[in-house]
User: Fold Epimerase domain-containing protein from Cephalotus follicularis.
Amino acid sequence: MSKDIVDKLKIIYPNYNYPNSFTDGKEEPKISSEKLQKLGWSYRPLEETLIDSIKSFRAVGQLDYKHLFFSIFVTRQKR
Assistant:
């Protein structure tokens, strides 16, 4: 999963530095969004979510073109 996200980010933001190796974490529990969908919630495309995340990190000063938040994300995944 981490590699898939990095691959998408490389296409959208090619000027960042990205990790080259990945460690798969333990399998996440299966979660259903069925009830949310019945209430009108829908998935957002991955690309849209990544772009909004990058914009948000930039807006609060947590990301510039020389650093990448993804290392934080990968660290959280390993817990």
